[in-house]
Please model this.
Amino acid sequence: WRWSRFDISEDKKIYRPIPRDRDQVFSNYDGALLDVLRTLAPTTGQLQKYGREIKDLKWLNTAGIKLDRTLIQQAGKEVWLEQAKYLQENLTDAVIDNAFLKLPKEVQDDTSEEIKAKLKARRDDMITVAGRYYDYFSKLVIITGTDKDDLFEITRGNGTTKISVSRIKDGEKQPPFKERIIKSNETKEVWIYGLDDDDRFVVNGKGSNPVFIRIIGGQNNDSYIFENGRAIKVHDHESKPNTVVKKGGASIRFRDDYEINNYDYEKNINRSNSIIPFIGVNPDDGLKLVLADVYTIKGFKTSPFHQKHSFGAAYYFATEGFYIGYNGEFADVFGNWNLLISGNFTSENFTRNFFGFGNETENNEDEEELELDFNRVKTGILNGRLGMVRNGEYGSRLVVSVGIESTEIEDTPGRFISEFFMDSPETFKTMTFANVDMDYSYESFDNKANPTRGAVFRLKGGVRTNVDDSERIYGYVQPAIEFYNSLTRNRKLVLRTMAQGQFNIGDEFEFYQAAVLGAGTGLRGYRTERFSGESALALGADLRFSFPKFKTGLLPLQLGIFGGFDVGRVWFDGEDSDIWHNDVGGGLWINAVDALTLDLGAFTGDDGIRIVFGFGVSL
Model:
């Protein structure tokens, strides 16, 4: 829309919105696929069915709620209900019927009659809906001043907070131009923006149950006088003069942060939940079902989030093992650093592979009665991590963390692990490790779903020690780099190159902490953890070709094919080997709306062919 100003009098002006796009008023986003997408992807919640009832108020007005908070800063619930009643009484059946007569005769049919009936049903429920919307809308209240000198008077009562905003002219307080009484049982948070010039913020009263208030001073010299600073946090510029007359227990943060100190009417508290499923098949896991749930809170800190909680679970049918994990990140807990909390658990049937140490270990799965199970190692893991995260502006991320991990290896008769460590029973005892990690990563893509130009770099390092035997300590460094470069002007043909390494410093590590090569670690034609040693290096390259996107009756699709190779080896003390293992293969992928992806690949190496399949959602 656009805005048009109407001068009613010398002192009064009215701004009316002028719609630019009035189609899709009575939209009907139905169908099974959209029902699924509304469950998986939070933003598709806006694509609602126009029915008699409004079921999801949160997504009904996602775009408009930001403007509501900007323009309706003083109205309490009684005003909303009064206006809803006025609309309900004046939007009569006759008014609605007459409006629908203005439709072209060609569309005045059963469908228009159905829409009209739904509109009348919504009208009849308008007061109830207005109350529900206000309850959601009022969880956050935003109050703005002017670009002149303003006085903000905040009075704390029992369960209420009165906010009054007045201009200051020639040093004198003028009559208030904004007043609002905030009820603690309705509102969770209030943001007050002083904007430009010299503003004064005064807090009085000692009432109980105060609502949380953020005060964002803005430009120039702002003054803060807090008789009661409980549940108040102040944000202002560090490089500009500010005057704190009385702090009163308030939290005051002066920092030159544009996003924090600048008023943005689109800033909003938003909670969204994404469910991300994945189905995969490979020789080591068999059928694999993965489900991730990502709960994101965008609050006062919006870029990229205020809090992010990721829950993951996976079940592996070939081994009947499962995995459960959690990762939580809380923005700006330590200045510009986020707080990181994570933990993982695997069942006793969760497996990894072990073929022995060295670059020339044998894979005798075809000769063993247990076949693939012969080299599988049942591994139970429980770990936790606490750290700090610094997210850069251009795709960089630095994580510094400490962690503790408990690992238990099962001594399974008839398997390679039991034979290899027959004389080392301590291997099968539960071991606890403590570690300190630093993990730096950088990524930049033109299109993450199908990159034609981009780069990924990662460098991880740390120290790990056995808690029960502090002399068993070692360090590790794990670098990786990947490039995508288009070879044609239309960017259909892309070269992907990769190099990654794992280097253990010292030899006091367990077999499951060794540097490894295999599927997922550089050699796509081999089993996972196929080779284990003190150090490992892998190189790889792919040629990828993307066909033009095409439409189907369901979704727009894009098909791509790729072919490539890998080469790599491990080093282990005492072994003299010149062999570099290699594989070659290719596959195809299908992408729908940059969200649904299907991958099929086949690579062959010295151990035979390895076929993998995956289908999932990437949001």
The chain has a mean pLDDT of 92. The chain is about 15% helix and 50% strand. The first strand starts at residue 2 and ends at 7.
